[in-house]
């Protein structure tokens, strides 16, 4: 996943990167140049493909949630690039996610045929919904 600054030009040559920040299951790289250019950062998250990502619905979009083929939901503080929470699927990859309107919960679905509700505040799974007979490819929450 790449982070671009809309005020900077894109580089005509492939960028060379160095590690900027590293944590459990992710690495953030920055360009090894003396002048600022795009892409500014490259996020390497998980060992598999990222299936979906979404910013928290609050005004400052402080949190970034990702679900990936390795079965993890990861929640980052987008501004500090720190991992602030995570959970693992029962088995298989996670395919989709949705934030609650108040940004307190994230709902995920995936190859385990379960809907899982993760509390961002408590940093844990608060419930699972079973009964589906196939992978869950989309979830959503309403404010009403």
Automatic annotation (TrEMBL):
Protein known as: WD repeat-containing protein 20
Keyword Transferase: no
Xref: Gene3D superfamilies: YVTN repeat-like/Quinoprotein amine dehydrogenase
UniProt keyword Repeat, yes or no: yes
Repeat positions for WD: 87-120
Organism annotation: Parascaris univalens (Nematode worm)
Keywords: Repeat, WD repeat
């Amino acid at each position: 996943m790449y982070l671009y600054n809309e005020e900077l030009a894109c580089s005509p040559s492939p960028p060379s990167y160095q590690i900027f920040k590293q944590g459990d299951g992710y690495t953030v790289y920055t360009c090894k140049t003396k002048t600022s250019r795009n892409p500014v950062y490259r996020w390497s998250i998980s060992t598999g493909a990222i299936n979906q990502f979404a910013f928290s619905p609050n005004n400052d979009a402080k949190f970034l949630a990702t679900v990936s083929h390795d079965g993890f939901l990861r929640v980052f503080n987008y501004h500090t690039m720190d991992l602030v929470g995570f959970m693992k699927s029962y088995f298989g990859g996670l395919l989709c996610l949705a934030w609650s309107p108040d940004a307190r919960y994230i709902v995920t679905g995936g190859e385990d045929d379960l809907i899982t509700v993760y509390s961002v505040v408590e940093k844990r799974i608060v419930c699972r919904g079973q009964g589906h007979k196939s992978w869950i490819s989309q979830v959503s929450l309403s404010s009403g």
